[in-house]
């Protein structure tokens, strides 16, 4: 196989990848998520929505969260993080994204789903995914 064929096939693999979805729950005890069922929410996203995977992390902005992101983030991928305010997420994850060769302004899709019911949060994810795929 020639180098150009290999490159094209790698590019296609990357382009095929859907967005990775992480729900950051502020330890799981944050009052901001008390109106929703967190497990129903993540299961609806992982089963019914076009994401590569979906899972819950307890606190991405703590030291272990940073270590997790250092191991987990991959170049040329996009990540939707549901949690706190987008402006806060961008500040908190800027270095981790940069260290992985990612641009926090392009490769992070931050959504704020605090103080929402499960269905309201699902609707925000649906709308954001639709806008992202336009
Ligand atoms: S990143 Fe945001 S949602 Fe996640 S633990 Fe930190 S403050 Fe909470």
pLDDT averaged residue by residue:
91
User: What name is given to the CATH topology?
Assistant: Rossmann fold
The tally of beta strands, per DSSP, is 4
Instruction: Write out the strand line-up for the largest beta sheet, numbering strands in chain order.
Output: 2-1-3-4
- Distance between the first and last residues' Cα: 34 Å
Helix content: 40-55%
What is the highest CATH level, the class? Answer: Alpha Beta
How would you characterize the largest beta sheet? 4 strands, parallel
- General shape: globular
Sequence of secondary-structure elements: HEHEHEHHEH
| Domain module count | 1
Query: Which class best fits the helix and strand makeup?
Result: alpha/beta
> Which ligands occur here?
iron/sulfur cluster
Report what the structure shows.
The chain is an alpha/beta fold. The protein has a single domain (19-132), classed as Rossmann fold, CATH 3.40.50. Helix content is 51%, strand content 17%. The chain is built from six helices and four strands; from the N terminus they run αβαβαβααβα. It has helices at residues 3-16, 38-48, 63-72, 86-99, 104-107, 118-132, and strands spanning 19-24, 51-57, 79-83, 108-112. The chain has a four-stranded parallel sheet with strand order 2-1-3-4, sandwiched between helices. It binds iron/sulfur cluster. Iron/sulfur cluster (SF4) is lined by residues 24, 26, 59-61, 83-84, 88-89, 92.
């Amino acid at each position: 196989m020639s180098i150009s064929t290999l490159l094209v096939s790698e590019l296609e693999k990357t382009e095929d990848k859907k967005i990775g979805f992480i729900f950051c729950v502020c330890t799981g005890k944050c009052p901001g998520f008390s109106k929703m069922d967190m497990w129903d929410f993540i299961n609806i996203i992982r089963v019914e929505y076009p994401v590569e995977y979906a899972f819950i992390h307890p606190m991405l902005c703590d030291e272990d969260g940073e270590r997790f992101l250092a191991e987990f983030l991959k170049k040329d991928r996009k990540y939707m993080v549901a949690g706190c305010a987008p402006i806060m997420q961008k500040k908190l994850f800027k270095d981790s994204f940069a260290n992985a060769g990612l641009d926090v302004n392009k490769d992070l899709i931050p959504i704020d789903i605090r103080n929402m019911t499960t269905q309201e949060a699902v609707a925000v994810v649906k709308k954001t995914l639709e806008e992202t795929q336009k």
